[in-house]
Amino acid sequence: AKIAGATSASLNLAALDASTVVGKRLFCEVTDGNGLYTTSLWSAATGIVNIACGTSGDATTGCAWTIDHAGAFVVAPLAGSLGTLGALAWNAVPWSPYAQQIVSATVRPGVAAGGSVQSMFSGCTKLESANLAGLSTPKAADMMAMFSGCSSLKQVAGVSGLAASKAEQMFQGC
Q1: Tens digit of each residue's pLDDT (9 = 90 or more) over 148-170
Q2: 132 and which of 37, 146, 158, 161 could share a cystine (Cβ 3.0–4.6 Å)?
Q3: Within 10 A of 10 (CB to CB), how many other CB atoms are there?
Q4: DSSP state of 87
Q5: Chain-centre distance of CA 150, in angstroms?
């Protein structure tokens, strides 16, 4: 699926005609013409199916995210070495439809919070580990409920540099 200005994409393999995709790769491309983040959603050669991918923030200076076939969530700068997430809130987390499929989370270096990371991983009931070492939070005013409901969470790395004025219920239900 090629999506201009989209925030997420997923693939319904059941709807595909196998004769049209044999030997080919399907990609999730999120672009505005200036920046491009591409991740393979499915490869006929390997049979690997990734769950979803998309963007958060501005189309050129934002971040791209993907959830691979094993449930590994990764967010990274969309273009270059710096990217800013869009403001996240309980009803505005682009990967939330896939929350229950996320097992691990990694924030790559150069990702900046864009005002709020509220509910960033809320409802990720299978999330066991998160590495936030790449997340810069000087502009983050709100980390409320960031891991709320993450009942399988065992480890969070890279939190020593995080700063926000609101962090209530950050680990509620963990």
Answers
A1: 999 999 999 988 777 766 677 78
A2: 158
A3: 15
A4: P
A5: 16
